[in-house]
């Protein structure tokens, strides 16, 4: 029998409802863009940020600057590894035809849309990598550890040191400066990276070579 249980169902406020409708509308528009002609699967934002995975995409300008720096640092025919730095990977792929190769190591399996260039990566198991990813086989490694903790940086550093021939470009919080120097021998750059959404923590770049970011 139906009784008055319906009264117990929580009702959304009109403000929450409106916000929810706006969110779904934006989502539909984004999906529509993806299926429309000319959609670029490598553009920043083509895969949504997932805050539960501590994902925050760089601004277009920052991603371009870091990608260009990586290309110059890697040199002609160079190999570039992007560790937890998908925005930079996407910018590098937009430069299709340039003389370099790139792969992306990330925990988020949505990036498997990038085919063989995607390598599943969990910083908790820093050396659990495919056999074909040979040690010291990348001219530069760009890394953006997902969490501002020494443990996360230390484990990511193991991966970086395994992959790189020498050059390292690290992006992390300003508060990680001492840990970055300790675990990777990198120094802070003048260039200040920006994100598409403002972060509470000050963010910086660190390198261990003479870079164009100073």
UniProtKB/TrEMBL annotation:
Pfam families in alphabetical order: N6-adenineMlase (PF10237)
InterPro entries, per the entry: DNA_methylase_N6_adenine_CS, Efm5/EEF1AKMT1, Mlase_EEF1AKMT1/ZCCHC4, SAM-dependent_MTases_sf
> GO cellular-component terms in the record?
cytoplasm
* Subcellular location field: Cytoplasm
Q: Which domain of life is it from?
A: Eukaryota
GO biological process annotation, one example: methylation
Main localization category: cytoplasm
Keywords attached to this Swiss-Prot or TrEMBL record, sorted alphabetically, are: Cytoplasm, Methyltransferase, Transferase
A GO term, aspect molecular function: nucleic acid binding
| Record field: catalytic activity | L-lysyl-[protein] + 3 S-adenosyl-L-methionine = N(6),N(6),N(6)-trimethyl-L-lysyl-[protein] + 3 S-adenosyl-L-homocysteine + 3 H(+)
Q: Does the keyword Methyltransferase apply?
A: yes
Q: Does the keyword Methyltransferase apply?
A: yes
Q: Which PANTHER family match?
A: EEF1A LYSINE METHYLTRANSFERASE 1 (PTHR13200)
Name by which UniProt lists this protein = EFMT1 methyltransferase
- Organism, by scientific name, is Stercorarius parasiticus
Encoding gene, per UniProt annotation: Eef1akmt1
């Amino acid at each position: 029998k139906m009784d008055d249980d319906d009264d117990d169902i929580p009702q959304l406020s009109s403000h929450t409802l409106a916000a929810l409708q706006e969110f779904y509308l934006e989502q539909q528009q984004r999906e529509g863009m993806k299926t429309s002609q000319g959609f670029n699967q490598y553009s920043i934002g083509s895969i949504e940020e997932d805050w539960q995975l501590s994902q925050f995409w760089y601004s277009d300008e920052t991603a371009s600057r870091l990608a260009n720096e990586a290309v110059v640092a890697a040199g002609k025919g160079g190999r570039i590894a992007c560790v937890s730095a998908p925005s930079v990977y996407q910018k590098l792929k937009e430069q299709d035809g340039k003389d370099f190769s790139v792969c992306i190591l990330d925990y988020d399996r949505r990036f498997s849309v990038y085919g063989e260039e995607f390598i599943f990566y969990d910083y908790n198991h820093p050396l659990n990598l495919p056999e074909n990813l040979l040690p010291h086989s990348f001219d530069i490694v760009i890394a953006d550890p997902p969490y501002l903790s020494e443990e996360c940086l230390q484990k990511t550093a193991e991966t970086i040191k395994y992959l790189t021939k020498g050059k390292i470009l690290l992006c992390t919080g300003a508060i990680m400066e001492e840990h970055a120097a300790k675990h990777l021998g990198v120094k802070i750059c003048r260039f200040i990276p920006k994100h598409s959404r403002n972060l509470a923590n000050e963010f910086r770049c660190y390198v261990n070579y003479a870079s164009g970011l100073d």
